[in-house]
Amino acid sequence: MTEAWGPDDDEPRRHHGPVRVRVPAKINLHLGVGPLRADGFHELNTVYHAISLFDELTARAGDTLTLTMEGEGAGTLALDETNLIIRAAKALAARTRVPAYARLHLRKTIPLAGGLAGGSADAAAALIACDLLWGTGLSREELAEVGATLGSDIPFLLHGGTALGTGHGEAISPILARPTTWHWVVAVADGGLSTPEVYRKLDELRDGSWPPKALGDADELMSALRQRDPEVLGAVLGNDLQPAALALRPELADVLKAGAEAGAVAGLVSGSGPTCVFLATDATHAGQVAAGLNAAGVCREAVTARGPMPGARVI
Ligand code: ATP
């Protein structure tokens, strides 16, 4: 239906593909979890940070909507209507009234159910890829609106960088700081943790006591980011979900301990876990901390990463 667009039209051009989009994982430098709202979401006050652990989605023109994949989770992750990539493509098609036809292929590196928002990252990639393939020409803000209906982290993964997230995480404000590269070690666990289960555990641990002591805003974290000193940043990293993740997976305490023993500036559970992330002073130090964690044998694999990274982008 959009094939009739000519070169003189103002309409965005349809792309015949392939369109390749790279999207980062996220960690939360600060994750303040507030009360459970009537709509079933917890109020969040979080600082998102995109790191150099990437999934890649390729979109080609097709007669139906199909998804194939390789890498992390292949053979485990459902590729049907439940996959966030298919849901994102369909939501974009519905919003823009085009047929949801594409052949999509995912190369996955971000571990499943790891607290790194891999599913949301893939949905963000699908929105960018299909928007270009179909020539629907939505702005990043419009794509974020479509994404927010599917997952709270999707607007951030379209945006990338380091940003404050409020509401249930979907309302994004960029954090303006002088460009600084932070060095991380990502300790990937065997197996995942279900995000809803971690939130349920947190509610149970809080046991109706309100307000919880741990709830804080992100002001300290944001001022630490501006100081560009890993020791200063390390001192204020925090995650209200960490006690719940540790209660469900006590062995994560061994990972945090091993990271500290390997010399990390600081360590914390990433989002809902079970991935743990550690701050290092520079790339060489990050390599040493990763080697220490790998030698301790407390996680599936420890890898180095940098941040902040841009959000989902065509490559
Ligand atoms: P979050 O912290 O955003 O809750 P997470 O990193 O803990 O996410 P994800 O890997 O994003 O976990 O996915 C959680 C669940 O979402 C998976 O177990 C899977 O059932 C479902 N899912 C749907 N589509 C995808 C996808 N493309 N990639 C990963 N998971 C997906």
Automatic annotation (TrEMBL):
Its EC number is 2.7.1.148. GO terms for molecular function: 4-(cytidine 5'-diphospho)-2-C-methyl-D-erythritol kinase activity. Residues 83-161 form the GHMP kinase N-terminal domain. Signal peptide: none annotated. Keywords: ATP-binding, Isoprene biosynthesis, Kinase, Nucleotide-binding, Transferase. The active site is at K26, D153. ATP binds at P111, L112, A113, G114, G115, L116, A117, G118, G119, S120, A121. Residues 221-297 form the GHMP kinase C-terminal domain. Pathway: Isoprenoid biosynthesis; isopentenyl diphosphate biosynthesis via DXP pathway; isopentenyl diphosphate from 1-deoxy-D-xylulose 5-phosphate: step 3/6. It comes from the Bacteria. It is an enzyme of class 2 (transferase). It catalyses: 4-CDP-2-C-methyl-D-erythritol + ATP = 4-CDP-2-C-methyl-D-erythritol 2-phosphate + ADP + H(+). HAMAP family: IspE. Belongs to the GHMP kinase family. IspE subfamily. Catalyzes the phosphorylation of the position 2 hydroxy group of 4-diphosphocytidyl-2C-methyl-D-erythritol. NCBIfam families: ispE, PRK03188.1. This is 4-diphosphocytidyl-2-C-methyl-D-erythritol kinase. It comes from Paractinoplanes pyxinae. The lineage of its organism: Bacteria, Bacillati, Actinomycetota, Actinomycetes, Micromonosporales.
